[in-house]
Amino acid sequence: MSIGARRLVVGAHYGLRDWLVQRASAAVLLVYLIALAVCVVSARPIDYQAWAAIFVPLAMKIATLIAFVALAYHAWIGMRDIWMDYIRSTAIRLVLQLGTIIWLAACLVWAVQILWKV
Amino acid sequence: MPERRVIRNISIGDLIHYRLPVPGVLSILHRISGALMFVLLPLCLWLFDLSVSSELSYQQLREVAGGWFVRIVLAALAWALVHHLLAGIRFLSLDLDLGVHLPAARRSAWIVIALSLPLAIWFALMIFGVL
Predict the structure, then answer these.
(1) What is the pTM of this model?
(2) What is the ipTM metric for this complex?
(3) Contact A115, A56 (CB under 8 A)
């Protein structure tokens, strides 16, 4: 892919995809947060029963899980960018990136467990 | 305006003299707030777990969230979320070619700060039980 007369962009082309996924996941999170806010406001006054009831329907579990997957992917790209910008040593950067993936994957599994317990 | 020092290849010592423009401040805060939320993600999950698991754990959450240290962390998280969200909307609109010229970009950066700081303070006051 070449841009303009001089710049030749080469590589695996996952940069553009990741850039796009980060924007798309941001949009998903924005929509989810608005929907959640609407649920919370319409369930007022909030006590344990009212709060937990929001997450009982399967549709809400699915929506929350999709939002969490979007969050994990979004956070992965963001953290990867931070490591790529500031950590010069390839070895340390790879360890941190691997740690980031494990951290997010663990959180994702935990989120599933919490959601399906409600 | 005072004369600007020309700085190339910034080293740590130059950071004091380097006047980062507002959109730049917003950008680095976007990073910092994102990293903060990434690091505190397990805390959020734990609190969410407590909030939905049972009547008892819900009470437990109220006790946990009553501690001053947890309140400070929660207030920081509230700021991070509000800032990241509003600055994120700004970045999305920039990607759509809206407000990319310098005056508009500066103005929208100020708007984000003008909205996020009072909102964060409002959340912090609620977290500390003032409101």
Answers:
(1) 0.87
(2) 0.86
(3) no
